[in-house]
Design brief:
Elements: H1 11-17, H2 21-29, H3 45-51, H4 57-74, E1 75-76, H5 78-86, E2 92-95, H6 99-104, E3 111-112, E4 129-133, H7 138-149, E5 154-158, H8 161-168
Parallel strand pairs: 1-5, 2-3, 2-4, 4-5
Helix pairs in contact: 2-4
């Protein structure tokens, strides 16, 4: 991370430089997942910690920074995914968007997530290369983090999702 997170920063400022903070705070401290444990964008990190009885603000900052570093490591560029497809590499390329979104735009090589049997993906080998995509790259980051948390070792989220794919790889894919 290039910018340092400090306790006096607002949550809006933190989320702008470390989007992984939202997921990290929820996973580690159960902060931000619902109205009873939520925070306002204008709340400082120090205030959020105080409101949730967390004494070690430095540890919260470290948790956010580690989560952002993981997110950065698991993101793969759309052009890299395209090169893997062109080279016919063996990997799973899974689009986690809803069926309604898939009707608006699709990457031909991406397999739609099987919402009728999502558990089948847990049966994939833990060392299988898996790339998730969505519209903007945020939901796919959540899914990738979930798989990493379940022991999968070669999991990626395509940075920017289908929007980046359309802009950087295949302009014929509609943007919505």
């Amino acid at each position: 991370m290039t910018q340092t997170i400090t306790p006096d920063m607002t949550m809006e400022q933190i989320l702008a430089i470390a989007p992984a903070a939202q997921r990290a705070l929820f996973q580690r401290y159960h902060i931000g997942g619902c109205s009873s444990c939520g925070f306002q964008p204008t709340d400082t990190l120090a205030q959020v910690c105080k409101d949730h009885n967390i004494l070690d603000v430095k540890e919260v900052v470290s948790t956010i920074q580690r989560a952002q570093e993981v997110d950065t490591r698991i993101q793969v560029e759309p052009k890299d995914v395209k090169s893997w497809l062109d080279a016919k590499e063996d990997f799973s390329f899974i689009d986690v968007r809803s069926p309604e979104e898939l009707e608006l735009a699709r990457i031909a090589a991406a397999e739609p997530l099987d919402y009728d049997n999502p558990g089948r993906y847990m049966e994939l080998p833990k060392d299988r290369k898996i790339v998730f995509t969505c519209r903007s790259g945020m939901r796919s980051l959540d899914v990738a983090a979930y798989f990493i948390g379940h022991g999968f070792q070669r999991v990626y989220s395509m940075r920017g999702g289908i929007l980046a794919w359309s802009e950087e790889v295949d302009p014929s894919v509609p943007r919505y």
